[in-house]
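Propose amino acids for all 584 sites.
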């Protein structure tokens, strides 16, 4: 903040342009990124969910086809003949049935390549393809398959396992069916083993890139072993089945500090759920391009704004820079300098008022020069001329800095006060004015000093008898007194100063009292106030000389002051004096 405060107004204006534009771009870009990310995630979830539903339909169609093949198998004539003998317990034609069913087994396996083997368990013996080698070490009644079908008494699917019925230990997924027959038949079961790896490829065939698809059973366990560590870890948490509280859907979940998207759909033929896990970061990886795009737009906006803000700054500050050059010439006592501008904005108006102020100053100087042709008037004007412009440069400098800080209205008020001050001080070339104009003059002077020394002091003006306002008085009498209070009395003060001006009188005389609560003066300083000239030529001694030129010994001046007790200066004048019409 301190660095920005030390910069020029032009640089501050450029920074303001840059801040507004860049902030707007960042806010727009951030909002766009947020909306894009939300939309992309929503669309990705919907697309992934559609893919999962489609995959579930494909698996359902495959399993339905398998069921249809087995239904065809069960209504074939060889199977029907075998089933009649099994129902009656006639095992005499066992080998005939075994030979007849072999062709039906082959047809089923040709119709569905996923079928690894078919096994039929009956009371009269086992039936299976002749090309398969039966594992004689394991009886069907000793397998988990038999325990499951005996327990549930319905057609069921058994998750991936090693083939216990045939040699080779192939990994299969089993379908166990009870036959369809005219009369109930007990103890007859059909086991269809399908290849686990083929089924796995079927499940993962339509998976989106970066996603992992698998099947879960009703207990939340996988239908076949999983190779992906991420999927195994997600399943081992045991939270997936609890999250799938609808027939199908999608939702995010956290794992190891990362967010993943879970999509699932129920199968219709089996109590299984098609499930897909995908990293949220993979879904939103396209947003990296959006980030870089926003960064590029921000950089481009910054470069363009820098160039545009420089051009705008030069254009907007051109009148102010012109006014600054005129003020510098005035500082070097070149009162012929004038502000020129084709614009009519506030800065141009300040410049034009400054021109009028300079013209008034030139007129004032000309009048003072002309007045020097008369001896008495020359001395009076020489003394008063020392006092009229004594604070001009300080006031102009204050106006300059207020303009530089873009404090336009206070600068305009100071210019108007300064103009009014000189108007009252000039008094149309007359040295005698009224007390009311003199009070207005000192009021304008105090307002200007309040602008130059903010919060340093306040002032009060009290006129006890209204008729005093119309009395005649030499111009610029009060200004040196209040100036003494400001420059000397309040030298060590930061704030809290008070100047009181009181006008009162009686039948013969009237008194002007100026009091302050400043540092005060000792006796030596009071004597110097009467006799010594100030280094700047603005001492109260000048005022004393002027008053004696007008009133002679009738002007009385009293000073009451002590260190740290403030100062009071009283000027007592006779009511008889030179009237304005006598000086015209």
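Proposal:
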């Amino acid at each position: 903040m301190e660095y920005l405060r030390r910069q020029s107004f032009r640089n501050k204006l450029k920074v303001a342009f840059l801040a507004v534009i860049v902030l707007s771009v960042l806010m727009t870009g951030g909002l766009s990124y947020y909306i894009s990310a939300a939309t992309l995630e929503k669309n990705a979830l919907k697309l992934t969910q559609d893919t999962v539903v489609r995959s579930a339909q494909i698996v359902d169609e495959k399993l339905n086809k398998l069921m249809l093949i087995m239904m065809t198998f069960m209504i074939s004539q060889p199977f029907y003949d075998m089933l009649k003998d099994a129902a009656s317990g006639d095992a005499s034609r066992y080998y005939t049935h075994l030979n007849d069913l072999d062709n039906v087994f082959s047809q089923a396996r040709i119709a569905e390549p996923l079928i690894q083997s078919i096994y039929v368990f009956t009371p009269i013996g086992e039936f299976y393809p002749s090309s398969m080698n039966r594992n004689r070490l394991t009886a069907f009644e000793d397998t988990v398959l038999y325990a499951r079908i005996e327990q549930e008494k319905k057609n069921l699917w058994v998750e991936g396992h090693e083939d216990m019925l045939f040699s080779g230990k192939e990994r299969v997924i089993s379908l166990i069916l009870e036959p369809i027959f005219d009369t109930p038949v007990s103890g007859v079961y059909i086991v269809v083993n399908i290849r686990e790896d083929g089924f796995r490829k079927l499940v993962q065939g339509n998976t989106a890139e970066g996603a992992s698809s698998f099947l879960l059973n009703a207990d939340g366990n996988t239908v076949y072993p999983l190779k992906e560590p991420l999927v195994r870890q997600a399943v081992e948490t045991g939270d997936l089945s609890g999250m799938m509280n609808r027939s199908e859907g999608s939702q995010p979940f956290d794992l190891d500090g990362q967010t993943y998207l879970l999509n699932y759909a129920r199968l219709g033929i089996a109590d299984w759920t098609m499930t897909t896990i995908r990293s949220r970061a993979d879904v939103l990886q396209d947003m990296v391009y959006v980030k870089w795009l926003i960064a590029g737009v921000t950089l481009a906006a910054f470069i363009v704004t820098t160039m545009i803000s420089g051009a705008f700054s030069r254009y907007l500050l051109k009148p102010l820079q012109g006014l600054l050059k005129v003020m510098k010439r005035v500082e070097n006592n070149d009162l012929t300098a004038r502000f020129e501008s084709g614009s009519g904005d506030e800065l141009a108006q300040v410049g034009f008022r400054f021109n009028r102020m300079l013209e008034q100053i030139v007129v004032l100087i000309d009048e003072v020069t002309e007045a020097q042709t008369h001896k008495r008037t020359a001395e009076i004007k020489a003394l008063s001329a020392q006092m009229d412009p004594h604070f001009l440069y300080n006031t102009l400098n204050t106006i300059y800095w207020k303009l530089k800080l873009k404090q336009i209205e206070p600068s305009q008020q100071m210019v108007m006060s300064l103009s009014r001050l000189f108007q009252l001080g000039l008094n149309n070339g007359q040295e005698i004015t009224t007390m009311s104009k003199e009070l207005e003059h000192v009021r304008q002077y105090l307002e200007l000093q309040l602008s130059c020394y903010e919060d340093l002091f306040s002032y009060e003006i009290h006129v006890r008898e209204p008729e005093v306002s119309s009395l005649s008085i030499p111009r610029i009498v009060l200004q040196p007194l209040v100036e003494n209070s400001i420059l000397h009395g309040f030298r060590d003060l930061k704030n809290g100063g008070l100047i009181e001006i009181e006008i009162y009188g009686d039948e013969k005389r009237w008194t002007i009292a100026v009091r302050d609560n400043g540092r005060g003066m000792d006796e030596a300083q009071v004597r110097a106030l009467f006799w010594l000239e100030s280094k700047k030529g603005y001492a109260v001694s000048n005022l004393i000389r002027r008053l004696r030129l007008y009133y002679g010994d009738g002007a009385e001046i009293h000073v009451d002051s002590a260190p740290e007790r403030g100062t009071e200066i009283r000027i007592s004048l006779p009511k008889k004096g030179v009237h304005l019409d006598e000086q015209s």
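The longest strand covers residues 258-266. Residues 9-74 form the longest helix (66 residues).
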